[in-house]
Specification:
The protein is mainly alpha-helical. It contains 2 helices and no strands. The N and C termini lie far apart (33 Å).
Length: 60
Amino acid sequence: MGEKKAKGIIYDKILEHLIIIREKKSKEMGIQLPEISRKTLCKKTQRAIKTYKLFKKIGI
């Protein structure tokens, strides 16, 4: 399995969990929370990886 396919599977699983959590929180709070798209999740993950690498490089 390639790295790209593995990342896709991981993103799909994360989205499944986020959907469940969002639905539970929406019911608890009584408000509609926004959905998270796969594209948004990918962008946030890539941004987090870049930040992690930066801090690792400077020794924090």
